[in-house]
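RECORD TYPE: protein structure
NAME: S1 motif domain-containing protein
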Amino acid sequence: MMPGTFAILTIDEKVDYGYFLTDGDERVLLHKSEVIGEIEVGEKIEVFFVIDAQERLYATMKKPLITDQSYGWVEVVDVVDDMGAFVDIGLSKDALVAMDHLPFLREVWPKPGDKLYCTLKVSGNGRFFVRLATEEIVEPLFKDADRSLFNKEISGTVYRMIVAGSFILTEEGYKGFIHSSQRTVEPRLGETVTGRVIDVKEDGTLNVSLLPRKHEALSGDAERIYGYMQERGGAMPFNDKSDPDDIYERFELSKGAFKRALGHLMKNGRVYQKDGWTYFKEQQDQ
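PREDICTED:
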């Protein structure tokens, strides 16, 4: 009976707080909180062995999501600055991804809800730890992408980080790379992000951008202008022929960017221009 292993044992005795199981030589406790379904004395059941806080071995009928022989996605449930990230492995106790195995920068550590692809490690004293999968371990999950994905939106989970950028794995099994130039904020390890495919490489992997498309980027400038107009009651003394210096002083935009943003608002029927001013569209007939 070793922590982190499975065994089929016989239910030897029922007690108030659970059951004692035996392999014929040794006995181990199965606490009632670790029982799944209905069981009876004399029945043979499969259990998994765990060490408790007092370093006592106990059995559970709960199946771990990962073992020292398997890898899988596990969810982060807590993060402790001087320790690392705790993940749910399907048992009553969470397991730790030690800080030494997390990124150097604390800002890109995973947060609760993020997911990591890991395996279980059992220390010499029976404690459970979790190790992140290496690139070689993740590689069999990959499938080749085809050119039809170009310019399409795709979502994936960050499983590896290097100085140049972040690697993601999608639910479909595609491997993507987000170069540092294709993001405004570095995603966290374990974070699921959505971006646009900007290249399908010959080896079947993807280059992905988290930057907005050009027309979407304009909307940020447009909303800034629209917000300014809201503050002024729906009108402003600027139009597409306004002085570039006046535009920059007010909005910190070049005249070209201002005209594109204003055009975006006009095209969407939100504003109109008259006599050197720009007004909310709903004011046109007033």
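COMMENT: The longest helix spans residues 214-231.
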